[in-house]
Amino acid sequence: MARNEIRPTTKLRSTAGTGYTYVTRKNRRNTPDRLTLRKYDPGARRHVDFREER
Fold first, then answer.
1. What range does the domain containing 38 cover?
2. If the chain, 54 residues long, is cut into consecutive pieces of 10 residues, what is the mean pLDDT of each piece?
3. C-beta of residue 50 within 8 angstroms of C-beta of residue 27
4. What is the pTM of this model?
5. What is the pLDDT of residue 5?
6. Domain with 9 in it: what CATH number?
């Protein structure tokens, strides 16, 4: 099951405090640090930073 070890699923939680999450996959070899993406949060009704949660 090498596929799951190299590219695991990660949850991205909103930094706006609404509790909204996105689920995505990331390549652990290319991005070993925590992932941060700017995506839309429907609770806040704007784009905010979503940070990887462990």
1. 2-53
2. 80 96 94 95 97 92
3. no
4. 0.85
5. 82
6. 2.20.28.120
State the sign of the Cα–Cα–Cα–Cα dihedral 19, 15, 35, 33: negative
Q: What backbone torsions phi and psi does residue 34 show, to the nearest 5 degrees?
A: -70, 140
Predicted confidence at residue 54, as pLDDT, reads: 79
For the chain, what is the domain count? 1
Dihedral, 23, 26, 28, 46 alpha carbons, nearest 10: -70
Backbone angles phi, psi at 30, to 5 degrees: -80, -35
Burial of 19 (0-12, 13-18, 19+ CB in 10 A): exposed
Hey, which residues does 51 pair with through a beta bridge? 13, 36
